[in-house]
Every structure is written in structure tokens, then in C-alpha cells.
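Researcher: Batch entry, complex prediction.
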Amino acid sequence: MAVEQNVGSQPLIEVRDLVRTYGEGEATVHALRGIDLSINAREMVALMGPSGSGKSTLMNILGLFDRPSRGSYSLDGQDMTRLSRRQQASYRGRHIAFVFQGIHLLPRLSALANVELPMSYARMPASERRKQAMQALELLGIAHLKDRYPGQMSGGQAQRVAIARAIAPNPLLLLADEPTGALDRKSGALVLQAFQELHANTGVTIVVVTHDPTVSQHAERIVSLEDGQIIDDCPVEDRLIASHSEGGQS
Amino acid sequence: MNTFAIAWDSIWHHRTRSFLTALGIIIGVFAVVTLTSLGGGVRKYVSQKFVGVGANLITVTPSVPSAHSSSRGSKFRGGGPFSNIPSTLTVSDVNALNHSHHSVIKDAAGMLTVPDLIGLPKKSPVSASVSGTSSTFFTIENLKAQAGTLTGKGVVLGDKAAKELFGHHPALGRKVVIGKKDVTVTGVLKSANSGPGFTPNTTAYLPLKTAFALTGQKTVSEIVVAASSANNVSPAVTVTRHILLNRHPSHDFKIITSKELLSTVISTTRTITDFLAGIAGIALVVGGIGIMNIMLVTVSERFREIGIRKALGARDGDILVQFLTESVLLAVIGGLVGTILAGLVTHVVGKAIGIPANLTLDSVITAVSFSIAVGVVFGVLPAFRAARLMPAEALRTE
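Model: C-alpha cells for the complex:
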């Protein structure tokens, strides 16, 4: 599966001084207080932090679901804050994919139809989207589930269909919000394994939002947020050593 | 993605709710289509009856004379349908028309409305009306005798009038009292279709001479002229006007064709039906509001679905079309069910009251296009709300 990639020196995601506030006056909530973040193509990054730390807000902005109050966000060298709603929807459909917390499959569509959905919104010809959908299902080892409905699958299977749906259109960026949040440990492990294999095989850039350390261990780099600011940003190996030494001290 | 399939799936999934929502439209369309179809049936009935009565007839009635000689008419006494307008039409006018030798005029007959009541001797009068006329009139109106003759010196009774007076006993040769005069029954008419202003079944026809004697008048209240065919009505009108103008330079008469009379009746019926259908249309609007209400509920129920679809690249327009399709489909289903019901009821009612009422293609097209319009108008707001939903908000709702 070929992935459009950014081979230049410029990072895929470039976020500068990103601020997001909700409400006005005394009731103003500062969800993000000036985020600077660069993510290169082919990276797999975990965004961590307690609830209310702003990680979901950041993810919504990265996914073009939300606009920053201030600051810049460019994706693949393109300024995302200047796009209209329609352009955002179109860009999202073609280049950004999502795996949500909980199983966000449409219950009344088969697995295959679910996987085809983003490509049909991108107005891709039927034969081509069928081909890409089947490829994605095969990549995740669930081609045999193509005619099943979400109600006829286990949680882990459904989430893998959701991942297949996310990667089928060959996105630039895959955003995952607590992808194992609604799964038991075993299914969760399978899903994480799927992410890693996917990353290894296709080199798609993955950003995972999570508060679960076992999830973040699968990433290459962990960015920690607290109170709307980045408090830590380091590769997983360092982090492992750090937590190891912390463990040793206590 | 098949928008239509998604919409149908959602409607079918909530069958009960969809049915109740569509019920408003069903009732609205049913009412409008039934009323217009029955109205159309009545119009058809009237025109069919009219064909039986004769589309070739022209009626000459007295009228206010033209302004320059308005004082002349006042010397004449007269009766007729417009009893306040004195008639100046005479038997010699009728003869002039009959002897005109114009091929477009077949026959002419004078009519005199006799204001007297008819009854059996020493009994209270019955509800039949009395007219004086000549035997030509029966030819013109295509009336046939079931007993006796139509050219006798006595009275000719309409079918119902004879039954009212004599029951099932033969009427021929019996005496009836008209005003204060005894008249012998010399003929009884076969039952015939009535038309606007023409009720042969409940009328007693006297020879003009007798009628003149009874009323003391010398003028007729109207002249009925038969054109040689329905197609020759307008040349016949021209000829009749020409002949009568020669004899009545003051133009104190009016010429109405049966066609005009019929179109007046038909346009009146149409106005009444349209008015009723308009009132029934209010039900459609109420039905539309019902659709809007349910679609708003549907949108908030499907926040999650909308969010997922948007996250997968659905544009505002895709979502708008999806929800609009659903409301239009709901309205159209309602419209079709309403139309089918209306067809059944129209057929049954039409049969029961004996008018040829059926669904017309027109009314079906109108009903369906109205349903589509209702679906669009009342679906726009909910669909727009769904389309503007931010996916982040939508997905946060768990």
C-alpha cells in the first residue's frame, strides 16, 4: 500500500503557538495555551495527558474538526487554518483518517461498506474503492468479515474494521483517539499490534491520543500535555529508561 | 453511497414513527385529492347530463332595453324568469325565427312561465311548475310521450309531476286544476334528464294559447332556439340576433347559449371545489410541520452518525442531501398513500352518489409535487442543522 509521503526536510505536521479558548469573559476556558509541535512523516506519536489536559482539543484541531483561536497549523506544507469548511471537509476526506474511541462503525452498513464510506465521500469510482477497501481489510487480516455487520463482530474485530476504514484511502495522517478505550485487554492488544504492523508496512504517520501507558509504549515518541501545554516530548526508549530509573529509585 | 437507500433504511428502521409522521401528509393529500376528484366528477356529471339535454340550444330572454329607448319596455307587462324585466318577446318573434329559412336554425319555441299552481280538483296543489309552450319545444328538447300525445289541447305532464298527482293510476284523460281553470291531461312525458334551468320531469306543459288565456299575457317569457347542430351554435346566435334586432331595435333581449349556461355552472363548481381543497391544504401544512418536528428529533438522535460521516469526509452538502432526501421520501410516501386512499374513497363515493368521479392524472401529479414541496420546505431546517453540526461536538456525545 503506497502512502503519500513527505520526503523533504519540512515536517509533516507543523504547529506553532497554538491557542484554543472556549467561551468569553470570566467563563473563558483555555484548552490550549500555546502549543509548538512538529511531527515528521512516518512517525508514530502518542499524545498523552490526563483528561482536561487539552489532548482531545489538539487532536480535533489536527483533524480539522476545530479551528484554533490563534496560532498556525500546517499539514504537508499547507496552511490548514486558511481552508474553508468545505475545503476542510474535502481535505479531511482525502488525507486524514480517524480511529475513534469506542466503535464508530455505522451499524447499518456492512464491514466492506463501512470501509468504502470515506472513499465514496471522496467521490472515488466504485471499482477503485472496492479494490482499496479489500486491500485494507486484507492488510488487517479481516477480509473474511467483509459482509458482516458491526453487530455481528467482536469489539476487536469491529475496531480493526475501523482501522481498515481509516487507512483504505491512503491517508497522510492517521489520528487515533483512545483506540483501545472501549476494548478488553486482549482485543486492545490485537488492535495495537495492528497499528504497529500498519506503521511498519505502510509507513503512515500515526498520532494516538491516549492516557493508557500500554498504548503509548507502542509509539516511537510520546508527547505529554498538561493544562494545555506540552510538558514532555521524548522518544519511547528514553522514556522507558526514565521510568525504569524512576522505578529503581522508589 | 446511495442516499436514497440510506433514507429508506432510516424510515423503515423507525416504521411506527415514520408512519405517524407521514399520517399528517396522508390526511392532507387524501383530503385535497378526494375533494378535487369528487369536484371533477360533479363537473363531468353536469357536462354529461348536458349532452343529453342538448348542446345546440340557445335561449332568448327579455332584457333591459338599450339605454336610448329604455322607456319603451315599460308599456309591456310580462313575467318570466326575470319577472321584474317586462318581456317584449312574442309568438310572432318565434314564427319569424321558424320561418327564417336559415339552415343553421332548426326550430324555435316560445315559453311562458305560468305562475299558477297545479293540483287535482278540490285538493291542495302539488310542487310541479307550469309552463306554456308549443309542441316544437318537445322536439327541440327531445322529449317523448309515454302516454297520449304531445300535440293535444290539454296539459302534458312531466313524469314525476304525473306520479305526484295520480300516483300509479293512468293520468291520461283526467282533469287537473291550474289556477282556476280545469284542464284535461292529454299527454305524459317520459322521464328525461334535467339541465340547468330545465326540469321537464316536474313541469306541466300547457299549449301557449291556454297559457296566454290563464295569465292574460301576450308575450312569452323566453324563446328556445335549436341550432342545426352543436357546431352551428355561434352562427345560429348571429342569425337569431339579426332577426330579432330587426323586430326589436331597442335590443331588449338577451341570448344565452346552453354552453355558456353550462360553463357558468361548471366554473361555479370549480370555484367551490378549489376553495374546499384550499382548506384541506391546511392539513398538508400541518403534516409538513409534523415532518419537520420528527426530522429535528432524528437529527439530534443521529448526532453520532453525522459526526462519523463528517469525520470520514462527508461535506455539509452530503449531510444536507441525506437528511433532505429522508424528509422528502417520507412526504412522498405519505403523498402516495394519501392518493391511493383518495382513489379508493373517490371511487366508492362516486359510485354511491352516481357521479363519474375518478382519480385524474392531474390530481395525482399535483398531490405528489405538493408532497415533494412539503418535504423540501419542512426538511430544510433540520437538514441544515445536521449539516452545520461540528463533527467534534457530534462525536463527543456518547
